[in-house]
Amino acid sequence: MARLSSYCLVILLVCGVGLAGCATTPVSEPRNTPLRGVSNEAQKQALGAADGIGETMVALSFSGGGMRAAAFSFGVLMGLDTIHGEEGRSLLDDVMFISSVSGGSLTAAYYGLHGKDGLSSFREETLLRDGEADLRLSLFNPANWTRLLAGGMNDLNNLQRWLDHDVFHGATFADLVRRGGPEIWINASDMYHRLAFPFSAGAFDFLCSDLYSLPVSVAVAASMAVPGYFAPVVLEKYPDACATPLPAAVTGASRDPESPLVLRAVANAILDVRDTRGGKYVKLLDGGLTDNFGLASILQSRLAMGTPYGPLNEADAVRLRRMLYVVVDASRPPAGDWNQVVEGPTAAESLRAVMDTVIDTNVRLAFDAFVAMTRAWREDLVTYRCSLPAERVAELRGDNRRWKCDDVEIIVTRLSFDGLDTERARRLADVPTRLVLPEQTIDELIAAGVEVATSNPLVRRFGEPGARRPGSGE
What we know:
474 residues, alpha/beta
């Protein structure tokens, strides 16, 4: 939702700053609680998390874009479910991980809570609902100006009311794990540290806060919190409740000027959240501000963990043979006709272009960096696997089958409106970033998601009979 409606709100910020003193500050009280002696990673296992990945893994990232992104990513899920290999398994059955941003988080969280059984109800229960009914969106209401100038026209309650009551029905992250489906990372942006913030076990262990008591709706609301339209979603730091030490990669990077800049930024942010002298709260806005594809948090996590296999664990690292990572991109192309005349752009168009430039540049860099990271990751996995003694391999894999340590493949592909004919691609890319869309538009977006998933050659090749057969090592 990073591009919801007009960017005129920024003009109001500039022109009406004098009203701020009269405004009532919107407050989103923290909903998170401290850890109680057990890490989130340990809780995840106790709650019955899925038993790791198998030899084949499909991972997904869902971009932002309001209901446009939610419907398109839903169509991709449906498309994956039509591609079958041996024993009747579809590619959707091999989805083990989903990272999401903004509107895509609606689909990711719903699927995580309901699995394939929920595909039949998602359209009616979520996509055809009016997610804007309880929101303050009018820039012509003077009362909203003061709210906007004080931090946002809506606080957490306005958006979370719909998400919690109508979409997720009070579900918590514990409910999501008990479902036994794919691991879901819902991404927001940490405003102060200017980094992606995933609602994941690892991130909340750094925060020393209990992820599994938190309503899923809070995470999705943070992921969708467009600046100006929403006040930040607030989490409290609990450094006195920490249950795990920090990784050596984090403590070392903060003092090493030769460390990558991203790792140093992540390390400093983690050290900061464990020290209330630097502030008591983490404040979150729309995940699309840092990376509208939901890839930056994976890059950050890999650096912070500092292991050759992370964010996989050791057992997953030796089981994996083939991974397909599908980035589902529902973003919009450049808009406006001011590049055709000498005059312009207007102030509103300029501000929109500035925001779009920041988002699109980050997206391109994150995607290219992610592809490069997967190549390096594959090499690290091979080096690690080939260094293990046979006894350790058997222990981690749980069997003594013949095994080739270098038999690892990671494929990355992107699904977007570009996979459609030119007229449809243009029409669907022009769909506004809203939380309510006409039924016909929703159905067109779903159909487009199915089509791009089933027609992508890399996806089809990965799903061919025999392609996912467990390897004999011969």
